[in-house]
Amino acid sequence: MLLATAFVAMLYSCVREYSVRRYLDGFSDAIVPNSLPAEQKVAAILNWMRAEPSRANTTNPESLAKRDPEMTLTYRQLLNVCGTATNAFLNLARSSDLRVRRLLLLTPDRRTKHVVAEVLIDERWIIVDPTFRVIMKDARGHYLTRSELRNPAVFSEAAGAIPNYPHEYSYDQFAHVRLARLPLEGLHLRRLLDTVYPGWDESVDWSLTLLFLLLRVLLAWYADRRLRIQRFHLRQNALRAGAAFFSAPEIKE
Fold first, then answer.
1. How far apart (Å, rounded) are the C-alpha atoms in residues 202 and 177?
2. pLDDT digits (tens, 9 = 90+) for 99-124
3. Above 70 in pLDDT, residue 204?
4. Could you give phi then psi for residue 64, rounded to 5 degrees?
5. Mean pLDDT of 224-244
């Protein structure tokens, strides 16, 4: 029964993923011509977000599925919130073959205060703020990275050129992965990873990696402790296979 349920869930996920990708591809094709360079693709997406075409409204925004790509592109309220506006930008950018990632701006106690996007252009991860529909740049029009925005003078110059931009959205502390949501935060996991592997949160897209890792651990615990099912232990069997392969066989006389 569990296997059948997992198989049906997998089929549903595949169909849903394919449907969403087709929707996003069609949506982005209508906004961003594929022939444009990366910089102009970013500008085209921001122009669409800024233009305020006919969009749906709801009297209860909290009832909307904030992680549904179709919802974030449809409702005006979601395009005015930093998290969902950034999600909408990332979805359209990825469908337009841009390399992008989410960046969380943190308070001193490591709580999220704002969400922006980074886009790889000319081998530099420049900052895009989808909530304000802008690419962060200095007075000379030079696109800025998060490292450059850590300089208070540079940040003040960039923020001063954007009407009503909150100056508390500084880049003193930031993160790509929200480890505060994990129960392991009490083990100072981020500090440990920063020490062992500097730059670990930029090396891969950790959102899905962490999700599937935690799901795998949860399912393994449930199978061992609750269902009492004999599992195939990959590490144990790999060690046994390695020992059998490299050790000399016993010869019985």
1. 9
2. 998 899 988 887 889 999 999 998 89
3. no
4. -80, 145
5. 71
3-state SS record for the chain: CHHHHHHHHHHHHHHHHHHHHHHHHHHHHHHCCCCCCHHHHHHHHHHHHHHCCCCECCCCHHHCCCCCHHHHHHECCHHHCHHHHHHHHHHHHHHCCCCEEEEEEECCCCCEEEEEEEEEECCEEEEEECCCCEECECCCCCECEHHHHCCHHHHHHHHHCCCCCCCCCCCCCEECCCHHHCHHHHHCHHHHHHHHCCCHHHHCCHHHHHHHHHHHHHHHHHHHHHHCCCCCCHHHHHHHHHHHHHCCCCCCC
Q: How many residues does the chain have?
A: 253
**What is the per-residue pLDDT across 37-55, written as a single tens digit (0 to 9) for each?**
989 999 999 998 888 656 7
- How far is it, in rounded angstroms, from Cα 217 to Cα 126? 36
Over 50: is that where the pLDDT of 186 sits? no
CA dihedral 133→135→138→139, nearest 10 degrees, is: -60
